[in-house]
Design brief:
Distance between the termini: 5 Å
Order of helices and strands: EHHEHEEEHEEHEEHEEHEHEHEH
Low-confidence stretches: none
Shape: globular
Strand content: 15-25%
Mean pLDDT: 90
Number of strands: 14
Number of helices: 10
Oligomer: single chain
Strand order of the largest sheet: 5-4-3-2-1-12-13-14
Largest sheet: 8 strands, mixed
Length: 274
């Protein structure tokens, strides 16, 4: 097995059910990856503020495909940053104009994330307090979203009632007139991404830079926003906790994220005789 690049999602994949990971074990594995010239890539819907906290002190040794592919970071430096088209943001706000509060819609720029003052965000048990506090430091509550579509919006996300999640996503993707796609990362969290700009798109940019082919790529994921990445990678792993739609596109199943499944697979890979 000639692996040159390993990419993993975060929540529900690399991180356990407490939103953390075995840092000591990961450090040992990262050292081994460095020795073998294998690049470790975090491919996540999260922004770099949270990812920098999760991997504090290690980001210079890693690459990041953040915000579902829209923000590519290499050794701490931004290589590419994609913003949503203003026309599409305006169409999105009009489409969900009666649900901006109920669905806790968040529009994020580089400096701030906008949320309606009457919206209620759940406090995820899978995010540690420091990460959650950092998330709210950039949050700005507003009375309405009038004029927000004129700003440089990098990311749109929202929180749906879990029972309504799939129906809302399916209906949006079938009926929305703009160039945006809704994908779920689980637990009712939904990301709105530019159609065609996804984790696989971002990974391809890094693969081109490192001259890595799909058959040299290992990837891990658990959500619908990981599907293109898993379809791209020859060595693709869906987590045991992933839904059937994600497992169906992967070649292998990794142990449950609460059991450190990604680290288990990497440990086995690095101690094998490939």
């Amino acid at each position: 097995m000639s692996i040159k690049l390993i990419a993993t999602d975060m929540d529900g994949t690399f991180l356990n059910d407490k939103g953390t990971y075995d840092r000591d074990k990961f450090l040992k594995l990262l050292d081994q990856l460095d020795q073998r010239d294998i690049r470790f890539v975090v491919a996540s819907g999260n922004n770099m503020d949270r990812l920098n906290l999760i991997f504090k002190g290690l980001t210079g040794r890693m690459s990041f495909v953040a915000e579902n592919g829209a923000h590519i970071v290499e050794a701490g430096k931004t290589l590419q940053r994609h913003q949503l088209a203003k026309k599409d943001v305006a169409l999105f706000l009009d489409y969900f104009k009666d649900k901006l509060v109920d669905y806790a819609v968040i529009l994020s720029t580089e400096e701030v994330s906008y949320l309606h003052k009457n919206a209620c965000l759940p406090k995820f048990t899978a995010i540690d307090p420091e990460q959650f506090e950092q998330f709210f430091l950039k949050m700005k509550e507003i009375d309405d979203f009038t004029g927000i579509e004129e700003e440089n919006i990098l990311k749109i996300s929202m929180m749906l009632p879990i029972d309504d999640c799939q129906e809302v996503i399916t209906t949006f993707n079938q009926n929305f007139s703009g160039n945006l796609t809704a994908v779920t990362s689980g637990f009712g969290a939904v990301d709105i991404i530019q159609t065609g700009i996804h984790k696989a798109w971002g990974l391809k940019k890094l693969m081109e830079a490192y001259q890595v082919t799909a058959d040299q790529l290992m990837a891990f994921g658990d959500g619908e926003n990981d599907i293109e990445m898993l379809e791209l990678a020859h060595f693709s792993y869906a987590m045991a906790n992933a839904p059937a739609s994600v497992k169906s596109v992967a070649h292998f199943i990794a142990p449950h994220h609460s059991q450190g499944g990604v680290l288990q697979v990497l440990e086995q890979f690095l101690t094998s005789t490939f």
